[in-house]
């Protein structure tokens, strides 16, 4: 079965899924603990193996590629979020979020050694064409993707605006590969979006947490307050399918609604990884009703925000259980321009709870009846994921929620059950508060007349 889509799209190929990382510009050597004797023994064995291959392989091998391959393999043995980035990939990660990209509008990653669509980027023809999370990319421009690196795939899918690229995917439930022909285009990277869903309710969607996200959020909030004026009854913060991003951007955003106390804490093996990120009242919003939308695609930094607002009772969480990534990665630059993304700590919500593998449970569970499933994938489903020391590990059979957790969000707000439920909830809360205020005023009047 084949589908042809000659659609112009705005594009971003995001290399990092489920962020929640910090940046460290120091050399890893400066941070490393001294090798013990057993580590020296293992390095000696590696050196021996490298030497044997260099001397005896049928063709002259590329020493640099062998070492990079060894580092890549080493990090893969740790957990799903530790990874190696060659210089090209490291530069991609460092590109300023205000830049522009040309490509096809999907986030990709390696899952079970297969090039896989993590999620289509919102508001792109790739999204509208029906490319789904979990689709296995079988070929790009007729080239098989077996053993293809992320960077190789990115280079093939990116290209000048107006040119076409063909990708062939294998999808669960389909007997034959599906072919998509998509026209590349340019799109600025914007992490905060708004739309007018109700005359009295504000709506802000955060697609991922980037360096400029808090500023973009503030601008959106200011527009909403200006447009709604005295009719403003509450705010919806949509974190559905938000894979995460910069830790400090998440902390900064949560601080808009939390006056004091810990927003998130991190704990690692080293003392400098044990940190408390505190709120301050410098830029806090006044207290008003908030609903935060989450689902199985809400991960890492978005879970930090949702967890903090829930713990401090600053918002009602609505939707489905979040992804469950409770770890923090640090980016290290290596001397040849490549980099490593290494899991260095776990994070904990203000109440001290780890959400690793468990995720955050919404206060009100609502599923979208008309949402297309993007596949069943949570942190606990990833091979090699870290354990949660606070809970007993559960098997899938113990999980009451067997429905796919990640849905494509309907473009029409009227068909978005979660969004419409959030609007009704905020209006109901406003009505209740008005009635309470009226009752309080009546009691005061009666009391003063006695």
List the defining traits of the structure above.
disordered C terminus; 6-stranded mixed sheet; Pdz3 Domain; disordered N terminus; 10 helices; alpha+beta; 2-enoyl-CoA Hydratase, Chain A, domain 1; globular; 450 residues
Give your account of this protein's structure.
- This protein is an alpha+beta fold and 450 residues long.
- Helix content is 28%, strand content 23%.
- Among the domains are: 91-188, PDZ domain (Pdz3 Domain, Roll); 192-328 and 344-385 and 400-429, Alpha-Beta Complex (2-enoyl-CoA Hydratase, Chain A, domain 1), CATH 3.90.226.
- It has helices at residues 28-31, 37-56, 63-76, 87-94, 125-129, 150-157, 213-228, 247-254, 301-311, 417-448; strands at 21-24, 83-85, 100-103, 106-111, 114-120, 136-140, 143-144, 164-170, 178-183, 185-188, 192-194, 201-206, 234-238, 262-267, 275-278, 290-294, 316-319, 327-333, 339-348, 364-365, 372-373, 407-408.
- The strands form six sheets. Strands 1, 2, 14, 15, 18 and 19 form a six-stranded mixed sheet that branches.
- Helix 8 packs parallel to helix 9.
- It starts with 20 loop residues before the first strand and ends with a helix.
- The model is unreliable at 1-19, 26-32, 396-405 and 444-450 (pLDDT under 50).
Please give a quick description of this structure:
With 450 residues, this protein is of the alpha+beta class. Helices cover 28% and strands 23% of the residues.
């Amino acid at each position: 079965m084949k589908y042809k889509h000659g659609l112009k799209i705005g594009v971003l190929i995001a290399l990092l899924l489920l962020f929640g990382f910090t940046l460290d510009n120091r050399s890893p050597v400066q941070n490393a603990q001294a090798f013990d004797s057993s580590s020296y023994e293992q390095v000696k064995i590696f050196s021996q193996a490298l030497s044997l291959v260099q001397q005896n392989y049928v063709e002259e091998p590329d020493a640099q590629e062998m070492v990079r391959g060894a580092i890549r393999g080493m990090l893969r043995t740790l957990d799903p979020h530790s990874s190696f980035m060659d210089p090209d990939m490291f530069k991609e990660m460092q590109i300023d979020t205000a830049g522009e990209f040309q490509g096809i509008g999907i986030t990709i990653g390696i899952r079970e050694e297969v090039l896989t669509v993590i999620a289509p980027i919102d508001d792109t023809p790739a999204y509208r064409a029906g490319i789904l999370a979990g689709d296995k990319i079988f070929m790009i421009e007729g080239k098989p993707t077996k053993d293809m690196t992320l960077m190789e795939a990115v280079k093939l899918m990116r290209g000048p605006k107006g040119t076409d690229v063909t990708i062939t995917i294998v999808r669960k439930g389909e007997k034959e590969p599906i072919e998509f022909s998509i026209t590349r285009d340019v799109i600025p990277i914007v992490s905060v979006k708004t739309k007018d869903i109700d005359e009295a309710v504000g709506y802000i969607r955060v697609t991922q947490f980037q360096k400029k996200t808090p500023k973009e959020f503030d601008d959106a909030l200011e527009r909403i307050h200006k447009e709604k004026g005295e009719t403003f009854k509450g705010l919806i913060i949509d974190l559905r399918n938000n894979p995460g991003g910069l830790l400090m951007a998440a902390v900064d955003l949560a601080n808009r609604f939390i006056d004091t106390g810990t927003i998130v804490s991190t704990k690692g093996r080293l003392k400098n990884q044990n940190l408390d990120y505190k709120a301050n009242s410098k830029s806090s919003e006044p207290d008003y009703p908030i609903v935060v939308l989450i689902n199985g695609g809400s991960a890492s930094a978005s879970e930090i925000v949702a967890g903090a607002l829930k713990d401090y009772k600053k918002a009602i969480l609505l939707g489905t259980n979040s992804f469950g990534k409770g770890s923090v990665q640090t980016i290290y630059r290596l001397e040849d321009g490549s980099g490593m993304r290494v899991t260095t700590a776990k994070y904990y919500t203000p109440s001290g709870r780890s959400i690793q593998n468990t995720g955050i449970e919404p206060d009100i569970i609502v599923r979208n009846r008309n949402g297309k499933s993007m596949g069943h994938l949570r942190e606990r489903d990833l091979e090699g994921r870290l354990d949660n020391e606070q809970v007993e590990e559960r098997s899938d059979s113990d999980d009451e929620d067997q429905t796919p957790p990640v849905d494509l969000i309907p473009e029409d707000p009227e068909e978005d059950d979660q969004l419409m439920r959030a609007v009704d909830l905020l209006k109901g809360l406003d009505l209740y508060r008005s009635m309470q205020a009226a009752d309080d005023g009546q009691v005061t009047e009666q009391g003063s007349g006695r």
